[in-house]
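Ticket #4471: complex job returned nothing on first submit. Input attached below:
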Amino acid sequence: MSEILKVHNVTKSFGGLTAVHDLSFDIRKGETVGLIGPNGSGKTTLVNVLCGSLYADSGEVEMEGKLIHQLPPHKRCHLGLSRTYQIPRPFPELTALMSVVTSALCGKDRINRGLDDAAAEATHYLEFVGLFSKRNILARDLTFFELRMLELARALATSPKLLFVDEVMAGLNPGEAVKAVHLIARAKEEFGLTIFWIEHVMAVLMEAAERIIAIQFGEKIAEGTPEEIASNDRVIEAYLGAGWKKGNCS
Amino acid sequence: MVDVEVRRDRIIIRYQGKKWDWILEPRYWRNTLIWSGFLILFPIISYFVNPILLNTVITANLYAAVAIPLALMTLGTGRMNFGPNFFIGVGGYTAALLSIAYGWGPLKTLPFAVITTLISALLFSPLVIVARGLYYILLTLLLPLVFMEITFIYTDIFKGDVGLAGIKTLVSTGAVKVNFLIAAFISMFLMLLYLWVVNKILKSRYGLIMAAINDGEEVAHGIGVNINKVKILAFVFASGMIGIIGWFYAHYFGTFAGITYLPLNFMIKILLVIFIGGRAQVFGCVAGGYFIAFLEMILIVTLGPIQPVIFAVILTVLLFALPEGLFGLYRKRRYREYMPTLHVRR
Amino acid sequence: MWDTLQVVIIYSLILGALYLLISLGFSVICGVLRIFHLGYAYLFTLTVYLTWMFMKELGFGLIPALLAMVVVQFVISYLIYKGIIMKYLAQEEIILTGLLLISIVVEQVTNYRYPIQAGVFINTTLIDGSTEIGTAVISNQLLAGAAIAVLLTVLFILFFLKSKTGLAIRALSQDIYSSRLIGIHVEALYTLTMFLILIPVIIGTLMVAPVWAVDPTMGTLYMTTAILVAILGGLGNIKGTIIASFLIGFTHSFVSFVLGEPRFMNFSALLLVIIILIVRPQGIAKSEALW
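Support reply: We reran it on our side without changes. The output follows.
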C-alpha cells in the first residue's frame, strides 16, 4: 500500500514550550490511524500544523509525494486534506445547507460547477449525516450533536482523501457516540477515505483503528496495533503514572 | 469563448470551465421596479418644481453610490473602511488634472480615473490582510487625511485650499437646467447600476464565500477558500467603483477640491448613509443616501450657519436611535428572514 | 552636520515627550477598554475652548476657569462612558462612529461659536523665553512640558505596576470575565480609567497651547499623531507607546531639520507606521498587555 502522508521530524514550539518535538510517522492509503496521548501532549497542535493553521518550525510533511508543509491551508484542502474541529466551529450566520455548499464549492477546483450544482452535492452530504431535515436552520440554532454532524458533512463535502477527525466523541452521550462512529466508518467505505483519528475514548479506537500512534509531550512514545498499545509500558506510564507498571503494584 | 445558454427559468453562462447560473425570478422584481420607477420620476418632478431639488437628488444618488461599494467592501474584507473618500479623492483628482492639463472630456478621463484608483487600491491592499480589525480602521481613517495634507503641500499641483477649476463638465446642452436634469439621470443610472451589480454579487456564490469568511476566517481557509484573494479583490473592486464617483464629482461640478471630500465631515456622512440607512444592506444605502442628502438640504435652507452643528447632532441621535437603520424599519414590518427554531435544551 | 544632528536629537526627545502626553491616554483607553476612543480628538478642543469660554463669557480668572473646565470634562467623560460605551460595547461600529460623531459635533460647535478668527489664546505659559541647548533653540514652555511629560509617564507606570488599583486595571484589560470572577469591580475601574486619561491630555494641551496653534480643528491634528503613536507602539502597551512616541518624534524632527520639509511630518510618520506594521503586524509591543 502506498503512503498518503509522510511526516518527517516535525517540530513546533511556542516561545519556550515545545508542543511537537521531532515527530515522524507515515499514514498509508485506506488506513484508519489513531492518535492518542494525555492532555497537553500536542495532538491538536500536530493537526493544526498538518492542516496549515500553523506552520512547522522545522521538518517536512509530504502528501502523495508533494511537499505541503509550506502551503497555505486552502491549497492543502485542494490536495485532499480535510479536518473537523475539536469544538465545532460552524458558520453561525449561515444555514446548515449553505455551510456545506461553501465547502462543496471551494473544496476542490472543479470545472462546470455552478451554485446550484454545489447545492445539489451538499444535500447529498447532508443526507448522509442525517441533517437533511435541518438544512435551512441557521448553524447557531443546531444542537451539539447536529453541529458535530455538520462539521463532518462540511469536511466530507470537500472530497478529501485524508480526513483528520479531532476528538469527535467529546460531549456526546453513548447513543450519539455509536451513531458517530458508524457514520465515520460508513464515510470511510463510501468515499474511500483515509482517516487520522485523534481520540481520548480508547474503546472507539480499539475497534475502529488499525494502527495507533501514542504521543506524550510532543514526542512519539509508541506505535502499533491497538492491542500492542494497550499493553505498552510507556503508554500506561504516560496515562497512569510510573507506579502502575506491571510488577510494580504491591 | 463565453457560452450563454438560455433556459426556461435561468440563463447559464460558461467561461473557461466555470459556470454561472442566473436564475430569473420575475416575481422578485416587482418591488425593485416600483421603487426604481419612483426614483426615476423624482428628477423629472424636481425639474419642474425647483432646481435645488435636482442638486439634492444628485447628491443623494452619489452618497448612495459611494455607500453601496463601501458595503460590498465591508462584507468582502470583513472590516469597516473608515476612509472611503480617499478613493473619491484619487479618482476625482485624476479626472480633474487630466481634464485641465490636456483638455480631455469626461469620457476620456474615465478609464484613467478608474485605473489610478485601482492601482492605489492595490497599493494599499496589504492593509486588508496585514492590519487586524481596529488597526485597519485607524489606518484607513488616516489615509484621506494624509492625502489632504499632500494636496496642501503640493499646492501648486493640487491647489489644496482652493481647488482645481476649469474641468470639462459632463454635459453641455444650451440650458443649465437641462444639464442638471441629464446629470441627475446619469447619477441615477450609476447608482442603480451599482445597486444591481453589488446585489448580484452578494446573492451569488461570491457573497456566500464572503459570508463564510466573515463567520470564521480560519475555518473558511481550511475548507479551501483563498481568503486573501477574496479580500483583496473585494477591496480593489469596490475602490474602483468609488473612484468612478470621484470622477463624476469632478466633471459634474467643474471644480474639484480635496478639502470638500477628504476631511472627516464628508467621510462621516458616507458612513452614516450605511448606518442610518440600514447596516450593510445595499437597498438601505439608497434610503440612507436620500435621507441624509435631503436632511442636509432642509437644514441649510432653514437654519443657515448653525446648520453643521444641528446636522451633526441629529445624525448622532439617529445613529443610536435606529439600530437597524431606516431600512430596518421597513423590513421589520414585512417579514423576517428565517424563523428561529425551538429545540429542547438538554 | 554635527549641529543638525544635535538639533534633531534634542527635538526628537522634546517632541517625543510631548507626544507621549498626547498619546498615553489614547493608548491606555484602547488597551483597557479595548475600544478605539475615536472621539479622543474632542478632548483637545474642549480643554482649550472651554477654558476660553469660562474666561470670556463668565469672567472667571485663569485658575478658576481651568478648574471649571476639568470638572466639565469629567462630567462629559462620565456621560459618554455611561451613555454610549457601556451600552454598545458589543457593537463596535456604532461605538466608533458615535464617538467620532461626538468629536465632530464638538468641532462644529466650536467652529460656530469661536471660529478661527476669534483669536483664542490661553496664557498657560509656565516659563517664558527660550533656552539654547547646544545648537538648538527651544522654547522654555516646551522644555517644561517635556519634563512634566516624563514625570507624568513615570507616575503612570508606577501606578500601573505598583498600586493595587493599577494591578486590577491591568487584569481587567486582559480578561473581563476572569476579573469579575475574582471580585474586581469592572464598571468602577472603567470609569476610573476614563478619568485617569484626562490628566495627561489636559496637562499636555495646556502646555503646548501657548506655543502651537489653537483652532477648532486642532483636535484632528493631535489625534492623528496619537493614533499613529498608538498603532506603532501596539495598542494599549505603555512600553510600546513610549518607544513609538520617541520614534515618531525622531521622524518628525528628521523630516523637518534634515530633509527640510516640515510639511511632510504626518505623511512620513504614516509611512513609517505602515512599513513597521508590514514587518511586525502587532506593532512594537511584545505583548497585548498594558506593560
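Chain B has one domain: 50-332. Closing as resolved unless it happens again.
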